[in-house]
Structure to design on (117 residues):
């Protein structure tokens, strides 16, 4: 899904060292999501590539180190933390993917869940 975004970045005067981002809104079966790449400034829309920003607000955060297949555990840990500490998730969450590495042990993904309280 990011191929078009990266092609756009390479053809424009935008930083191309940003990290991939995935924002999830709602839950299955009504899951809405947005994919993107961090850039240094806003830009004019170009087809399906549009400027956006990460959700803002109080969030629970954890860092997942390792293969992407384990990301579910990071989300489960945040859900458990919310239950234990009396926080209500808003339903919006996002992942910021660190630099790719052939060695999965060196990969890092930051996981955020926006909170209602």
């Amino acid at each position: 899904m990011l191929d078009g975004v990266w092609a756009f970045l390479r053809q424009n005067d935008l930083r191309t060292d940003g990290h991939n981002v995935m924002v999830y809104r709602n839950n299955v079966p009504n899951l809405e999501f947005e994919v993107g790449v961090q850039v240094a400034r806003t830009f004019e829309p170009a087809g399906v590539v549009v400027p956006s920003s990460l959700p803002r607000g109080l969030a629970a955060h954890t860092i997942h180190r390792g293969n992407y297949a384990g990301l579910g555990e990071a989300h489960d840990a945040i859900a458990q933390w919310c239950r234990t500490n009396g926080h209500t998730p808003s339903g919006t969450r996002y992942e910021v993917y660190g630099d790719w590495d052939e060695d999965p042990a060196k990969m890092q993904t930051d996981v955020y869940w926006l909170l209602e309280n």
In short: The chain has one domain: 3-115.
